[in-house]
Design a protein that fits this description.
Keywords: ATP-binding, Helicase, Hydrolase, Nucleotide-binding. The protein is of the alpha/beta class. The protein contains 32 helices and 27 strands. Bound molecules: adenosine-5'-triphosphate (ATP).
């Protein structure tokens, strides 16, 4: 027999629950005391490491480093565990396991000085039962107890009785603390859920480390939370593999990464890299979203072919004639020959265009020599030899060019075959060096994209992939220093992959390069290699460019520069929104990686889902993205584990009902998740004139400030940065969208406390608020073919209060009665 109690008095001053809490507190105190000792040990180890370094032997530095590093990591993990160290207890049934065994589960493992277990790390196999046991499958667990703490103090308990037959005399307490914890006020940053991970979530977290884990689930089912806990699990169980080669977590936008950034550190894992799709590429940060139509153009895989042609086009300002002099003979190459050279080099050097200058120089020399012999140059040169002013020098003078032969300090042509002499002499000429730098500059990917703001240049690159209207819209989005969009970042990465890195730097002293004819202004003009002294300052734009790239590169111990890191595991959140070009960007970072992909297709703003799926499959299989548009040879598919999460932990049942109605319109075949918590607070829909929506949104936010302790999101339609096409009549939703520009949003937020956030529907992805105010659902729904799915995202953000403001009366019925 067990006894279920909820605060019943015991007669000795407290309730049964109080007594149970006090008993758990005694255990927790012992665990904290031991944690304190472990901390002191870690600090002593750090001190010992430094002491050894003073011993002065050669090996001691290395030993010290390793010791200090290990001890510092340990100290850090112990610090993290300081808050809520122990959160779970399992009472096991007699049987295979020792009778009456009790296990405590916590943020990290704690052992006594005799190595007996006091607390089991939540990621250890022995903790699995804590998350997996159910009444149907108790796994030997009689009672599961969750301890809710504030700092070191246990404040509440909640028990699950899993095996009533074995619970003889066991006290069962609890009054829905888990559900109450779901209703807690949100602070603007996501928290870990380590104490209350549910069984279906735990299966995802502990899924096999290889291949791909694909997780689907409706809003609020814990996809993001689960993905982050999986990272902590993988780093704990496979530290060597994932710790050294790295884990990348990618979210949709910067607001979202800011929202989730505290979760992993709170689990003691600070080593994963967290990036949004807008800041995955160094040197190009996205600050704006494109309109859905423009995003569809930029994100389509056809852009790969367009960019390949754009990279192969001549650089802006590239000269179209090369003239050099040899032995008084002027030799020139015209545009036709230069185009041929450029195309040949591009064909051979895709992926290493920025490092191909040496190849360009060789091909130009071949073409110059060919021209020289065609002109009868060798004979003319022989005749001119010794003469002060031959025929060719006269031509030269007329063209205003000086032969190096005439320059004081010019070196004798030297020995070797005529061709070798020719090459050596031409290479020395300033004209040749200057030409090479201008003809084959080291290019920055962002500059290449900006250069496509010139419609003529974009038209040349467009091929059959883009029509005239597409070219005009794209070019205007890149013209005139407009900020980069989230889709642009993937295009910049594509260009980066085509251009490749500039040649590796070697900081040779300038003196070593003083006699090198290829060195111009501190850089080898053939290789782009920097050979300057440390204090040398570049004074040419191009050199600054290569310096910037080098600066942002990661220098590894042996001096090798790693431009784009590859990761051992990649987590992609909100994956339903990735465009094919964004998948290519991610694929480049994880060719050998295993993946965790979490998504909800019903929340997708992306129109061409089949194309995005194909690009996703290519990325997950480690396929090298082909820049040509030919059919891919499918790479072998890696093992895949698919999961679905079915319980909505975010929304109250009242709000979940509203979002289910929107879902039924957006995707009639989709199933909503089951919400578990009723708040008793009915969602509100207010109808008012369109011109009054912004003022009403502010008013609603002010009212809600008095009703909730935590965050309030005011979610407004997306404001397109693109100008409306003159000559066409704007649609009503286009006029309405124009109301929600940055200035209008600022006015709305002015003077309100930080816990009110005003954001557009695209920024709201993945976020969560205590209360949400949705302005103009009719405009959101009409803004794109997937507008209803975008609205579904917006209405599923709130935990307690939902207020919708609309100018169209029928929306009241749509949202409140289906
Ligand atoms: N087992 C759990 N215990 C406590 N809270 C949970 C649990 N699972 C999820 N939550 C909470 O539910 C909320 C929603 O979780 P999360 O943001 O991970 O959902 P999601 O599926 O990623 O949603 P969306 O699709 O809208 O991005 C969060 O506040 C999260 O902390």
């Amino acid at each position: 027999m067990s006894s279920q109690v909820n605060g019943r008095p015991t007669g000795d001053g407290g309730t049964v629950k109080d007594r149970e809490i006090a008993a758990e507190q005694r255990y927790v105190d012992i665990a904290y005391a031991r944690l304190e000792e472990m901390r002191a040990d870690a600090q002593a180890m750090i001190r010992e490491g430094y002491r050894q370094s003073l011993a002065g032997t050669k090996g001691s530095l290395v030993d010290r480093d390793a010791m200090v590093h290990q001890a510092a990591l340990r100290a850090q993990a112990l610090d993290v565990a300081d808050d809520g160290l122990v959160f779970g207890r399992l009472d096991l049934a007699p049987g295979e396991k020792p009778a009456g065994e009790v296990r405590y589960v916590g943020r990290i493992g704690v052992r006594t000085s005799e190595h007996d277990s006091l607390v089991i790390d939540w990621r250890a196999p022995a903790a699995e039962d804590f998350y997996r046991a159910t009444p149907e499958d108790p796994r030997g667990v009689v009672r599961r107890r969750v301890l809710h703490s504030r700092g070191h103090t246990v404040v509440d308990l909640e028990d699950d009785l899993l095996d009533p037959d074995a619970a003889d005399g066991m006290t069962i307490v609890g009054d829905g603390a888990f559900l109450a914890s779901l209703a807690r006020a949100r602070e603007g940053a996501m928290r870990d859920i380590v104490a209350t991970i549910q069984r279906e979530q735990d299966e995802v977290i502990r899924a096999p480390a290889d291949g791909t884990v694909l997780v689907r689930g409706a809003p609020g089912t814990g996809k993001t939370a689960v993905a982050l806990h999986r990272v902590a699990y993988l780093l704990f169980r496979h530290r060597r593999r994932f710790g050294s080669r790295g884990v990348l977590v990618v979210g949709p936008n910067r607001r979202f990464t800011a929202y989730i950034e505290r979760v992993l550190p709170s689990l003691g894992e600070g080593s994963a890299t967290l990036r949004s799709l807008g800041d995955l590429v160094d040197g190009a940060t996205a600050t704006v979203h494109d309109t859905p139509a423009l995003a569809a153009l930029k994100g389509a895989e056809t852009m790969a072919a367009v960019l390949r042609r754009a990279v192969a086009d001549h650089a802006p300002g590239a000269p179209d004639e090369l003239r050099v002099v040899f032995k008084g003979v002027v030799v020139s190459l015209d545009r036709r020959v230069l185009d041929r050279v450029r195309n040949d080099v591009h064909r051979r050097s895709r992926g290493s265009v920025n490092a191909a200058r040496r190849q360009v120089a060789e091909m130009l020399l071949d073409a110059l020599w060919q021209r020289f012999t065609d002109l009868g140059g060798p004979e003319a040169a022989r005749e001119a030899e010794g003469a002060e002013a031959g025929l060719w020098n006269a031509i030269l003078a007329a063209d205003g060019l000086a032969s190096l032969d005439d320059e004081p300090g010019g070196r004798p042509a030297g020995s070797g075959t005529p061709r070798e002499q020719f090459d050596a002499r031409v290479r020395e000429q300033r004209e040749f060096a200057d030409f090479l730098v201008a003809f084959w500059p080291i290019r920055r990917p962002a500059d290449v994209l900006r250069s496509l703001g010139d419609p003529a240049r974009l038209r040349r690159a467009a091929g059959r992939e883009l029509d005239r209207d597409d070219v005009a819209r794209l070019a205007s989005s890149w013209a005139g220093g407009a900020p980069f969009s989230y889709q642009d970042v993937a295009l910049i990465d594509e260009i980066d992959a085509l251009l490749g890195s500039p040649p590796r730097p070697s900081r040779r002293r300038a003196s070593a390069a003083a006699d090198d004819p290829f060195v111009v202004d501190g850089v080898n003009i053939l290789t782009g290699e920097e050979v300057a002294e440390d204090d040398w300052e570049p004074d040419m734009q191009e050199l600054t460019t290569s310096m910037e790239r080098l600066e942002r590169s990661r220098r590894v111990d042996d001096g090798v520069v790693e431009e784009r890191p590859e990761y051992a595991h990649i987590v992609v959140d909100e994956a339903q929104d990735l465009s094919p070009m964004q998948w290519r960007m991610l694929g480049r970072r994880g060719r050998q990686a295993s993946w965790t992909v979490v998504e909800d297709p019903a929340q997708s703003a992306w129109e061409d889902l089949p194309a995005a799926r194909a690009a996703m499959e290519a990325a997950l299989s480690g396929e090298r993205p082909s820049s040509r548009n030919r059919r891919r040879k499918p790479a072998p598919r890696r093992t895949r584990h698919e999961y679905e999460l079915t319980t909505n932990y975010r929304n109250s049942t009242e709000i979940a009902a509203v979002s289910a109605r929107v879902l039924a319109r957006a995707l009639p075949e989709a199933r909503p998740a089951r919400a578990v918590r009723s708040s008793g607070i009915a969602p509100v829909v207010r109808v008012l004139p369109e011109s009054g929506l912004a003022a009403a949104a502010r008013e609603a936010a002010e009212e809600l400030l008095a009703q909730v302790e935590g965050t309030i999101g005011v979610i407004v339609p997306f404001h397109p940065a693109e100008a409306h096409d003159e000559g066409t009549i704007p649609l009503p939703h286009e006029i309405a969208s124009a109301r929600w520009d940055a200035a209008a949003r600022e006015r709305l937020a002015a003077g309100l406390p930080d816990r009110v956030q005003v954001l557009d529907v695209l920024e709201a992805k993945g976020l969560e608020f205590d209360a949400a105010v949705i302005a103009a659902p009719e405009t959101v729904a009409a803004q794109s073919p997937n507008g209803l799915r975008v609205l579904y995202v917006a209405v599923s953000r709130a935990t307690q209060h939902l207020v919708v403001l609309t100018s169209e009366p029928e929306w009241e019925g749509i949202l409140l009665s289906g």
